[in-house]
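Hi R.,

Here's the chain you asked about this morning:
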Amino acid sequence: MTLFRTAVALMLALLPGPLHAGTMYMGGYPNVLLLFDEASGKVTRRITLSTGLPTGLLESADRRRIYVSTITTGGIETFDVASGRITDSFSLNTPTTKYRFYSGVADAAGRYFYTVAERIDKDIDRYRIGKPQYTVVDLKLHKVVRAVDMEAEDDTPGAPYRAAYALSPDGQFFYVFRDKAIVVATSNLKAVERIDLAKSDIAGYEAVNFGGGVEAIRTPGQFVSLFSAADPYVHNKVFGVARIDLATRRFSFAPIGPAPTTLAGLEVTPDGKQGYTVATTGLLGNKRCEFWRFDLTTNQLTDKAEFPCRTRFQFGMSGDGTKLYIYGASYDIEVYDARTLKLERTWDIGNDATMAGLVVSQ
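And here is the predicted structure, written out as tokens:
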């Protein structure tokens, strides 16, 4: 019996064990930050946010803090990962002035928060809605310290309001990824460069559209995402992988194939070799959703698989890169195996999740 137990123990030890599970952070209605354990598949904590409904989650560069943007009162709350508590919370709104923004990016020191916001002023007889502004919030003083109107050429009608943001390593430039990449000098909040495919080294493309996912890759100083573009002649849309060096502002891309209706951004495995997205084609009853897997070393599509669509959803990845998540605007998380692209299980989170995004902390 002892020999049998020893043999069984040895066999179990040789089996490939699970990678390290992490803690998932999600926004929940009406005003909570959800902490979800990947190992157990359960919500471990619900933290009340005093400033309202969360619409954006951003992890700091050192991964020690998570900044939560809330829309109810124009708030920003800082969650400390080590202590597991909210260390700072404030609202920008006053009885006569309100700010509307969804997310942003904080500098390395955790002092300033950069975003694109709209200011709404209440007059005696009406509300005045201002133009979109590059906005700097002082996280220590709890107020907007600088704001400059976005140039008319950058305030593109119909451009995604939920932009992705990044800062250069030296803090001198603020990147706004909408229907194009806008490089803004942090010294005066003026656009110094607009990066699009028509002006890149490889000519022949226009109307670049970046997907989300700046938090999805851990390469410091680099933004990697998917884009769609159209040639200037017959306007045939293609998609590919775009890379921007945040320090030098050098732009490179690799077209891959015909563009679907929408792409859900790019999630990247910890080794940086595999990338995943969700491609959606059609609308309403004709809507079709697929996982797409890429080899990022060759920029090639290697596999795809259809899955049941939701009316609204977001796409994410586990901390170890082995699972894919479909979540948001619902009470559950669908878990898919990243290797087979098959549904494994559904986790009940017991709370309606917002579309604020997902942060995974190991």
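One quick note: The chain is about 5% helix and 50% strand.

Cheers,
M.
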